[in-house]
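Narrative summary of target 7.
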Amino acid sequence: MPNYLLSVCYPAGASQPPPDELAAIMTRVGALSADMQAAGVWVFGGGLHAPSSATVVEDRDGEVVMTDGPFIESKEQIGGITIIDVADLDAALAWGARKAAAIGVPIEVRPFVG
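Modeled conformation, tokenized:
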């Protein structure tokens, strides 16, 4: 079965919700992760620290250059990922829709090249 990446996409200007709302989101995400595991589609998943914590490692003519911050300058940001192993794109989109409902932000669904 093919693997798909479900990326949590925070829109420009998004900020962390208040603690009670964040707790509710995390409860829904935990339940969804349990459903994915029970269905046998969950491969890996997790949240990401802020883009400012990123380091870009680049090879420039044999010399390693490291730069602080994200590689792509964007107002939107990826807040977390889930990798699933499902039968087809329709199944991946169905899990992506459930994840979007659980978190309340867009979810990008993208297949792995395989």
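The longest helix spans residues 19-39.
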